[in-house]
């Protein structure tokens, strides 16, 4: 989806602030001056209703004054603290389900300006096993979510549906065959760094083979649904400047418009 919500939010915030400022600088003083002139010409104080009417802001100024604080708060929260996303595909199954709503920590990897994505402050670097949201290198208007497999300097190998990092096999234990008779999916528990999580392997899909050396300033990512994920194995590395943030929690699941949201699924993303 090419819709840039950050650009729209920044534009609306700026527009509402400008409308409010124009009224405060140019129109409000004239309203106060007219009121003062009217009061000076009267021997009795003007009724409060008359005063309120003479000081009343025009509709466009009142809208700007009302909307600017709200939009500014949303802009700050969304740009620098947490941003919500909805999971649109099954590439991160079983960790994330289609229809999950997640929160992404925007400051964990550093503070960036909205729209331009210029980094202001560096804080943490992505670590193996973390789930990250980033802008797709081949089309930065699209957000992707994957798990970090390799960091700068790592040699990543993939063979027989198994990852090797710097020659060491990523630990994976078979948990279940789904279904038990004539299984189509294998469920594994995988451990990478400090993170333990589950992955899927599609029995009917052939394995690919490859080896990659992660360059400085880039990261190697993969979906947990290993045979049904478009990730670094196919299109390459994720540049550091395209990182959006760290996925931290699932707060809701909503299948479609005609179903009820499910808040019972709230959980930390492993």
Jot down its keywords.
270 residues; alpha+beta; Umud Fragment, subunit A; 2 domains; 4-stranded antiparallel sheet; 26% helix
CATH superfamily assignment of the largest domain? Umud Fragment, subunit A
Number of helices: 4
Task: Give the CATH architecture of the largest domain.
Answer: Ribbon
Radius of gyration: 27 Å
Mean residue pLDDT? 95
**Structural domain tally:** 2
Q: Tell me, what's the shape?
A: elongated
Secondary structural class: alpha+beta
How does the major sheet shape up?
8 strands, antiparallel
Characterization of the model:
The radius of gyration is 27 Å and the shape is elongated. The strands form four sheets. Strands 1, 2, 5, 6, 14, 15, 16 and 17 form an eight-stranded antiparallel beta sheet that branches. It has a four-stranded antiparallel beta sheet with strand order 9-8-7-13, with no helix packed on it. It contains four helices and 17 strands. The two termini are 27 Å apart. The chain has two domains: 5-80; 88-268, Umud Fragment, subunit A (Ribbon). It is an alpha+beta fold and 270 residues long. Strand 5 and strand 6 form a beta hairpin. Helices cover 26% and strands 33% of the residues. The mean pLDDT is 95.
Mind sketching the topology for me?
Blueprint: H1 5-40, H2 48-55, H3 59-81, E1 82-86, E2 100-105, E3 111-112, E4 119-121, E5 131-135, E6 143-150, E7 155-159, E8 162-165, E9 168-169, E10 171-178, E11 185-192, E12 195-202, E13 210-213, E14 218-222, H4 232-235, E15 238-239, E16 243-253, E17 267-268
Antiparallel strand pairs: 1-2, 2-16, 3-4, 5-6, 5-16, 6-14, 7-8, 7-13, 8-9, 10-11, 11-12, 14-15, 16-17
Helix pairs in contact: 1-3
